[in-house]
Structure formats: structure tokens, C-alpha cells
Amino acid sequence: MNIIKRNNVKILGQGKKTMLLAHGFGCDQNMWRFIIPAFEDDFKIVVFDYVGCGKSDLSAYHAERYSELQGYAQDVLEICNTLQLEDVTFVGHSVSCMIGVLAAIEQPNFFSNLIFIGPSACYVNDTNYLGGFSRQDLEGLLDVMDNNYLGWATYLAPVVMKNEDKPELTKELQDSFCSTDPIITRKFAEVTFFSDNREDLSQLSKPCLVMQCSEDAIAPDTVGQYIHNQIQDSTFVKMKATGHCPHLSHPKETIAIIKNYLKTHDH
Q: Which of 93, 228, 244, 247 is catalytic?
């Protein structure tokens, strides 16, 4: 199995240390393009597409493997192993935050720290826990995906992006949703929205940064705060950036927060 081809892995940058950028649901590595130039001098930057996303090898998709987030965490670990990475700064967006948690619990030796952009450990509201959605909400969303895939993408993209003054970004996200295989994306949506990783957080032994966006309909404030409280060595930053994709909508603020964190937390 050619892991590099399977996950469309690209390596950029000049630095000795490694930064691994992991995209969110319905996205691909292209979503990092505004962030990469700021770190190219100091880091070797690794970007990739999860199987089923972007320009990954679709023939490598197996429904059983990717029926839980652990399958995607294996992608991350196999990339680290193939490239013989160590002391990686893992930067995950959205669902990739918990994929990073699972990977770092399983093989902590690959990672030095983790940076989470818009993380959620569980999207479904529970007793004494506000995830942001009822189970009915999410089942309704999956029904729309089944019955009107284009309509689903048109509805969800502006909710996720939430920057009405930048319609081109909403269109880009919508196009990204529509460019993936609908069956795989539907499965990934189900795995993303119905995963519950709350119990995993306390097992994370690495320092991490929780970047919480403002007015984030996908991962509200309560969720970011919950993650921060559960992880022993974590730093919480509330962003001015609105929406769920600050690396696209507010790259300057995103870069500044990451750089500031790494100044004090990079060994």
C-alpha cells in the first residue's frame, strides 16, 4: 500500500521540526493554503487528504475501516510512520481534532503537541452536556444528504463558514462538499456527528491548544471549554474569528495564535 499516494501526501517548507495539518469534514488539504506560508521557514509541513476526500485514492476506501474515527486516526499514524516523523505539531480542524487525540493516545511518540481549531468531542446534547445539536437535528441533516445532496451542501456551507461578507469562501466550501463522493461523505458525516470522544480527552498526555471560534454553529463555546477542562495540559484561546473555518476566513488571527502558542510550548 502506497500511503503517500493513498492520502495524496505533500511535503512543503524548510524547517527541521514537522507540522502536520489535518483537514476537517468535507474539506481537503487545499483549505490550509492561507496558513502554510507563515510556517514554511520554520517547519517541514505535511498536508494530506483523508481517504475519500480531495485527491486521495478512492479505491483505498473501506466502509468498515472508516466506520469510526479510529480508521482516520490510522491514516494519520501510517503517514507519520511512513515519513518517519517525530516531535510533530499536529494541527487539526474540526473532526480532525478528535482524530488527532486518538492518534496521539495510540502512539504518543510521534507528537510533541496538538493544536485544535474548532474542536468538538461530541456534537450531540446530553444530560449536563451541550454539544450543540439534538440527535433529531443530526438525523434530519443525514436525511437531507440522502434525499437532496446538493441542497444539503447549499444549506450547510453558509452555516459552517458564517462569514457573509466573504461569499467566495462559502462557495468554496459548498464546492468542496459537492466534489466528494456522496456515499463516502454521507458516511463520514455520520461518523463525525455521532462520535463521542469525551472519555478519550483525559487520556491525552500531550500539551494542546484549543482554539474556540466566535459564533460557531458547529462547535459552540461550551464545547471548546469542555475540551479545555478535560485535557490536563491545555491552553484555551477564544478567537475573534466567527464561523467554523478561521484558517480560511481569518488566517491572520489563526496564524498569530498558533505562533504565539508555539513560542511558549515548543521544545
A: 244
Q: Which of 28, 49, 75, 216 is catalytic?
A: 216
Is 228 among the catalytic positions?
Answer: no
Task: For residues 124-135, give the mean pLDDT.
Answer: 94
Domain boundaries, the chain: 3-265
For the question of residue 216 being annotated catalytic, the response is: yes
State pTM to two decimals: 0.96
> Catalytic residue among 94, 96, 112, 120, which?
94
Q: Which CATH class is domain 3-265?
A: alpha beta
Residue 267 has pLDDT above 70, yes or no: no
244 is annotated as an active-site residue? yes
CB 119 within 8 A of CB 224: yes
Residue (of 51, 28, 33) closest to 176 by Cα position:
28
Q: Over the stretch 75-100, which tens digit does the pLDDT of each residue have? A: 999 999 999 999 999 999 999 999 99
Give the position of cell 470522544: 197
